[in-house]
């Protein structure tokens, strides 16, 4: 990838993720959410067609979380494929065109958020998850 393209993409992503004023600081001084945003920036510089994101908004404040959601939605509009793992059901409901609910390593539900909500006759994906897995808190999770 051309150096000028890398610089421009880096600048644009740093700005979108709200790190412009902090980018010269040592990463060791970054808080958790800042490190997550930087990690996302680094994963996007080369403009991948497919992106795997594991719990991308854990530890983020609402503004940072919304910026990540906006970026993921923008990537989807550009035709990129984003695989997302999350325990935040509202995040899955907002971002996923299709999703799988996994319990103990097995897919127990598959469909669009609307399909699953309708199928289980509940208000949201969190209620779908609880309906499928139960309310009991599990050991070691």
UniProtKB/TrEMBL annotation:
This is ATP-binding cassette domain-containing protein. Residues 33-87 form the ATPase AAA-type core domain. It comes from Ignisphaera aggregans. The keyword Nucleotide-binding applies. The keyword Nucleotide-binding applies. Keywords: ATP-binding, Nucleotide-binding, Transport. It comes from the Archaea. Belongs to the ABC transporter superfamily. One of its GO terms (molecular function) is ATP binding. Gene3D superfamilies: P-loop containing nucleotide triphosphate hydrolases.
